[in-house]
């Protein structure tokens, strides 16, 4: 089933709504991509603040689990409470010092890529889904990217913002060229 098959079955009002949604989100995507390209520093600051806010809410949720999770064993409640307090404090610090939170975010991303890379390398021996050499190469690239992200965090994050902004603009433009056909005009 293709996108065309689906759009042929939609009522005219729904098809118009889909088209309008694609146009609006594409225009917003293009504008956001341009803003990120023109003001990468401000974009990184917004990312830092959003990261801090997410840490704050994750910490608060963990604390909630520690106090409200009556079905959880006592040890898990303590773990949730301690993690919640640490993450909540990290979120507050990150909100007060967003520049440092970007460095922390870069370390998180880098460590995640390193673990993912080693996971790919070790999984290459018994995966039926991809050639072993491809999994190993993918893992090595991921480990290297993680090390670069940690070692050169500001350059790596700025590059990530630029690449993401360009991808957002390109994908948004492509979406505009793949709009479903307009509903047929009613016969008079």
TrEMBL record:
InterPro entries: Acid_resist_chaperone_HdeD, DUF308_memb. It comes from the Bacteria. Keywords: Membrane, Transmembrane, Transmembrane helix. The chain crosses the membrane at residues 21-39, 45-65, 77-96, 102-121, 133-154, 160-179. The keyword NADP does not apply. This is DUF308 domain-containing protein. It comes from Gordonia pseudamarae.
């Amino acid at each position: 089933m293709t996108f065309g098959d689906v759009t042929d079955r939609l009522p005219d009002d729904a098809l118009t709504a889909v088209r309008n949604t694609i146009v609006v989100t594409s225009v917003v995507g293009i504008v956001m991509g341009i803003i990120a390209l023109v003001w990468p520093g401000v974009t990184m600051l917004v990312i830092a603040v959003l990261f801090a806010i997410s840490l704050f809410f994750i910490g608060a949720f963990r604390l909630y689990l520690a106090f409200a999770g009556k079905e959880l064993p006592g040890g898990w409640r303590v773990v949730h409470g301690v993690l919640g307090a640490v993450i909540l404090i990290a979120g507050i610090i990150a909100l007060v010092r967003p520049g440092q939170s970007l460095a922390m975010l870069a370390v998180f991303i880098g460590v995640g890529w390193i673990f993912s890379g080693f996971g790919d390398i070790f999984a290459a021996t018994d995966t039926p889904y991809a050639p072993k050499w491809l999994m190993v190469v993918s893992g090595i690239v991921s480990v290297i990217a993680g090390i670069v992200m940690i070692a050169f965090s500001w350059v790596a994050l700025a590059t990530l913002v630029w690449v993401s902004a360009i991808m957002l603009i390109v994908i948004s433009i492509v979406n505009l060229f793949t709009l479903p056909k307009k509903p047929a005009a009613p016969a008079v």
